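REQUEST ID: PR-0412
SUBMITTED BY: lab tech R.K.
PRIORITY: routine
TASK: structure prediction, single protein chain
INPUT:
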Amino acid sequence: MNKLYAVGLGPGGEEFFTGQARAAIEKSDIVCGYTVYVDLVKEVYPDKEYFTTSMRQEIDRCRKALELAESGKTVAMVCSGDSGVYGMAGLLIQLKDEYKDVDIEVICGVTAALSGSAVLGAPLGHDFCTISLSDLLTPWEVIEKRLECAGEADFLIALYNPRSHKRVEHLNKACDILMKYKSPDTVCGHVKNIGREGQEKHIVLLKDLANEPIDMFTTVFIGNKETKIYGDDIVTPRGYEKKEL
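STATUS: complete
OUTPUT:
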């Protein structure tokens, strides 16, 4: 059976590649992916063969990877973070029926909610959800509803794709929605370029979050009513300190 790996690379540098991810790439003849993510692999495996596409060519990219695998090549489709979290693993599996001689194996990676949380301390110490603010594939009305529900339930929230050149106001709108349910003084944080050159972390309050210099390379963390600042870190207590010993 021909092999195609959907590989999560983690947030950035080689140190975030899991053992499984390394093994899959080393076994592969060709590495496919979005140009930015493939460049991360080229630094570590310069002698591999590569196939890249630009953003918004996801279907073409996945079909090409499947075609290469069907031709007998072992292929790694690489994704930033985890390949199954806003990644290509799902699309590859959806297309698989057209390429019945290809076996797809999903290789997990460290998604930005986890790697960014570690930079900030432990903001995701209790129940949390991830919400992407990109409305390229999801209607904004659906995103708004998810923000409403997460805010009402006081979930900890990791926001992906918080702001771009074309979607300047989405983060502002998200903050307005969440402040209907959460205090304006809710502790928040954001991390830019997680695990890469130029990594930055910032701790702010929800009322100030929309005015922060946040872009598509930033992951945003919004606390719950228990989230607090401890020195240079954010922690959301699980509640151990309330237990009777």
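NOTES: The mean pLDDT is 95.
REVIEWED BY: pending
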